[in-house]
Design brief:
It is a single chain. The protein contains 14 helices and eleven strands. With 355 residues, it is α/β, with parallel strands linked by helices. It folds into two domains: 6-77 and 112-255 and 330-354, TIM Barrel; 78-111 and 269-327, no CATH class. The strands form two sheets. It has an eight-stranded parallel beta sheet with strand order 1-9-8-6-5-4-3-2. Strands 7-11-10 form a three-stranded antiparallel beta sheet, with no helix packed on it. Helix 6 (141-149) links the parallel strand 4 (131-135) and strand 5 (153-158). The longest helix has 17 residues, at 82-98. The N and C termini lie close together (5 Å).
């Protein structure tokens, strides 16, 4: 195996493993368990307001004094389009009706972008998590400078070499190379730009060779053998998300867990229909609805998600979980249900065996 990367010592990690920050799925208990096992535990704060974020950070710290990564969404704030939104409501109205429910009469922007969120920045500067990571792009130069001056390690997602070069120029400390296989939201900066859909292995190697920053591989990685493969390509560490969805500490509901353990795990789908941005999900009733929908018919992120969450709630009330945001990567069939600390230890043992 390659020599241990200096990034691990900087982050205080025994293992080159990062539990992905999955908004709505990763929990303070999960992050604490992973960090306690020698890897990097993470919290997805993209769906939280400032005080909710503070509560999650402190919830992790009540359980562990290990390193913590918190992740923020840096998307362009949504541009509302009443006509597109009304048409989207009408498109999904029959699904609500079949569940005996009414859709919302109007949609709203349910998540605030970290870009311009001064309250969230204040929380981060006060709580000082070990790592702050960004998805969908970057905040402004002043925010990056403030976090760096606070001693925070900054990490950001790239899906291409062009995005990685933007991150490098901005002064982040490491890059997450998110491959096309990855579950959840695609980290592209511009959803309307062409996407080369690079796989994790090709992207990782490309960024290792063409940038000077540590590279963290992400996308489809589920076991120690996969982690070992990325390290041999020059990655400093590997980030795993779907591998932890079935963990005991995961916030995934019963329907999500059941779907992950079903044949649906073999058929993940990239869709905009659920949230408004491309995201990889287990194949379900919602992804089927989005197969033939032109991207121009889908409202902006996260306005679309307002209706998606309402439809999921209506379904759950009828014990129908097929309209959930069941994010998962292409390695989903390899998921294992167990406590997060036990999974981390198993990944470490598999990594050692693959050396």
């Amino acid at each position: 195996m390659p020599a241990r990367h200096p990034l691990l010592d900087r982050l205080g990690l025994r293992l080159p493993i990062i539990q992905a920050p999955m908004a709505g799925t990763s929990s303070p208990a999960m992050a604490a368990a992973v960090s306690g096992a020698g890897a990097l535990g993470s919290l997805g704060l993209g769906a939280s307001d400032a005080e909710g974020a503070r509560a999650m950070i402190r919830g992790m710290r009540e359980r562990s004094d290990g390193p913590l990564n918190v992740n923020l969404f840096c998307h362009r704030p949504a541009i509302a389009d009443a006509k597109v939104e009304a048409a989207w409501i009408e498109r999904l109205r029959p699904e609500f009706a079949a569940l005996g429910a009414e859709p919302p009469s109007a949609l709203k922007e349910i998540y605030r972008s970290f870009v311009g969120d001064e309250a969230m920045l204040a929380v981060l500067l006060e709580e000082r998590p070990s790592v702050v990571s960004f998805h969908f792009g970057l905040p402004g130069e002043a925010v990056i400078r403030a976090l760096r001056e606070a001693g925070t390690v900054l990490v950001a997602t790239a899906t291409s070499l062009a995005e990685a070069r933007v991150l490098e120029a901005a002064g982040v400390d490491a890059i997450v190379a998110q491959g096309w296989e990855a579950g959840g939201h695609r980290g592209v900066f511009d959803t309307e730009a062409p996407d080369d859909q690079l796989g994790a292995m090709a992207l990782t190697r490309l960024l290792v060779r063409e940038t000077k920053l540590p590279v963290i591989a992400a996308g489809g990685l589920m076991d120690g053998a996969g982690i070992a493969a990325t390290l041999k390509l020059g990655a400093a560490a590997a980030q795993l998300g779907t591998a932890f969805v079935a963990a005991d500490e995961s916030l995934a509901d019963a329907g999500y867990r059941a779907a992950l353990a079903s044949r649906a795990a073999h058929h993940t789908v990239m869709t905009r229909a659920i949230s408004g941005r491309p995201a990889r999900s287990l194949a379900n009733r919602f992804t089927a609805l989005g197969v033939s929908v032109p991207s121009g018919d889908v409202p902006a992120y996260p306005i679309t998600y307002d209706l998606g969450k309402a439809l999921h709630a209506a379904g759950k009330a009828k014990s129908e979980f097929g309209f959930g945001a069941q994010w998962a990567g292409q390695g989903a069939p390899l998921a294992r249900a167990m406590p997060a600390a036990a999974l981390t230890a198993m990944l470490a043992a598999e990594l050692e065996a693959a050396a």
